[in-house]
Specification:
The protein is mainly alpha-helical. The chain contains two helices and no strands.
């Protein structure tokens, strides 16, 4: 009977000390350096952008054409809608 109680006590102490060690590791955690950024992820710089370049002008032209087309479609939709105003 004594051996069973002694074995249970020792087992409980081992489990308690093991879980305390695990908790201490989780709280403190390993010390690691800050990971570096993945290759290919670069913050753009102002020197990389050329205002009024050919590529910039082409992109602005595409955006302007798209905006003009959307404006026409919006106006056509407004004409087709029958909304009562001031009834």
């Amino acid at each position: 009977m004594r051996s069973i109680v002694l074995a249970l006590t020792l087992g409980t102490m081992l489990v308690a000390s093991g879980s305390a060690a695990v908790r201490a590791q989780t709280i403190v955690g390993p010390t690691t350096a800050v990971p570096s950024a993945p290759i290919g992820h670069l913050q753009p710089r102002a020197q990389q952008f050329a205002p009024r370049s050919a590529a910039e002008q082409a992109e602005q032209g595409k955006m302007s054409d798209f905006d003009a087309e959307q404006q026409k479609e919006d106006e056509e939709l407004d004409k087709h809608l029958d909304i009562c105003r001031g009834c």
